[in-house]
Amino acid sequence: MINGILNIYKEKGYTSHDVVARLRGIVGQKKIGHTGTLDPDAEGVLPVCLGRATKVCDMLTDKDKTYEAVLLLGKTTDTQDITGTVLSERPVDGVTEEKAVNQIRSYIGEYDQTPPMYSALKVGGKKLYELAREGKTVERKSRRVMIYDIRIKEICLPRIRMEVECSKGTYIRTLCHDIGESLGVGGCMESLLRTRVGRFSVEDSLRLSEVEERAQSGELSKIMLPLDGVFSDLDQIILKEKYASLGYNGNPFLYRYVETQKAGSEEPHDAEQFRVYDIRGRFIGVYRYEKKRGQFRLEKMFLDQDELRRQS
């Protein structure tokens, strides 16, 4: 089985599920999952996990993201983007560049955002977009999202191109809608490009056709990030051989059981996370340190037990 993460450039017209289906055919295995839905008309970074790496799908979904979007002022739609049915059109003569920029930047920070009806969130076991297509509108609870920064790239009213850094769960088309409403003219999202998901950037992404070429030439491993590469920001520790079985079984282990320790042998900070390996370099999982007990506790196991038995 192939294990690792591919940084896919999702092209316009594909759903995230389409990308997974295509990749299953390209690599010849079923165990593949994506890390966060992109609308069919949106483009950009879509990390896709293969094999054991599917265990990190939820972790990558939780990562902060960066988008480049075009806000079209003066038009509101039922989907909050340009593909929807137009609900209203208003003149934007009273909106100056300065007023627009000031209003947009006022959204930097935390704000309560109400998810759109045309979204994959579920209410009563049914996806909101399914209810919306039936002509139904249901109450949605707002949720707190974080907008870390908004950089204005270009203004040519009624269009504004901007780059948004945000937390997970942020709907950029809802942000566009909200900005338009706060300016008193309405607005919708005209285009969307996701340029970053955690450590994955659009510059390093590959289209499905490029991945297929690499697979056919036997170079798939060259474009795939190893499973532990997702956690490259965490310090690495290695279990002493006599205590490796504790890691293999997902058990807690003491600080003194570690073969290599942090610089200066300083005790780790409380709640600090680590990548844990055995002395053969096999990635066991992610552990968190509990300073009160002086031990590491498992956060997520990634070791393949079947592979371990075969290699023993």
Automatic annotation (TrEMBL):
Q: What is this protein called?
A: tRNA pseudouridine synthase B
Question: Which keywords does this chain's UniProt record carry?
Answer: Isomerase, tRNA processing
PANTHER family per the UniProt record, alphabetical? PSEUDOURIDYLATE SYNTHASE TRUB1, TRNA-PSEUDOURIDINE SYNTHASE
Active site per database record: D39 (nucleophile)
EC identifiers of the protein: 5.4.99.25
Give the reactions, separated by semicolons, that this protein catalyses.
uridine(55) in tRNA = pseudouridine(55) in tRNA
A GO molecular-function annotation: RNA binding
**Stated family:** Belongs to the pseudouridine synthase TruB family. Type 1 subfamily.
> Domain Pseudouridine synthase II N-terminal, which positions?
24-172
Recorded hits in Gene3D superfamilies, A to Z, give: Pseudouridine synthase
| Classification via Pfam families | TruB_C_2, TruB_N
Q: What does this protein do?
A: Responsible for synthesis of pseudouridine from uracil-55 in the psi GC loop of transfer RNAs.
Sorted alphabetically, the Gene Ontology BP terms of this entry are: mRNA pseudouridine synthesis; tRNA pseudouridine synthesis
Group of enzyme by EC: isomerase
Q: Which organism is it from?
A: Candidatus Mediterraneibacter stercorigallinarum
The tRNA pseudouridylate synthase B C-terminal domain sits at: 173-230
